[in-house]
Each structure stands twice: as structure tokens, then as C-alpha cells.
Amino acid sequence: xxxxxxxxxxxxxPEKLSRVRALSKQLGLSMSELLRRLVLAYDALxxxxxxxxxxxxxxxxxNAQQARLGNQLKQALDSDEAPRSPATIRQIExxxxxxxxxxxTLRRSAEDALTSARVFSGESESPA
Length: 128
Description:
By secondary structure, the chain is mainly alpha-helical.
């Protein structure tokens, strides 16, 4: 049966070829299908569609969440009640815990963004 598919040759360094093979195996895709999906997944001329955009957007969302929690904590700490009620103390403790969770998420997302940037630029994923 005839096909209208065309072949294309792509060159990789041995290290990068190994990474492509490992990723295709991990995802259960042929190398051809993996490369097709990666190439066609975004418009290279549209920065919003670049792989680094989503991790960066996530960092901005987390930053906004961090600011909101910080403002709520400041309001709770600035309350004029003295001594603080048990409810206010619980609210402050909850906010401090949430801020810690958001900081952890922020660190993880920053690492993801850095990894995406390195992968997109062709650099190694491990720090130099």
C-alpha cells in the first residue's frame, strides 16, 4: 500500500540521541512519533506556545498566591486584639503553614522552569 509520508534525516550527538531514546521509551512512543509531537506541539514563532511559557506562567501564579497569603498574614498580625484569640492564633498558624507549602511549590516550579529552559535551549539538565 502506498503512503504519502516523507522521510527526514535528523542528526543528534550520542548523548542527545540517548536522551531521545530514553524519553521515547519512557512515554511508550516511537522516536518518530515523539519527535513529531515535540515539533508540532508549538509554533516556534509564537513565544506563548514555547515549552518554557507554561512553567513561567505557573511561577507567576504561585507568586500571586504567595502575595495573597502574605497580605492575609499581615492583616492577622496587625489586628488590634490583645491578647490574640485562639481563633486568630489558629488562623496565623494556618497561614504560616500555607506559605510554607506555597514556597515548596514555588521552588519545585522554579526547578521545572529551569529544566524546561535547559531542555529547550539544548543544555544539559544537570547544573554545570
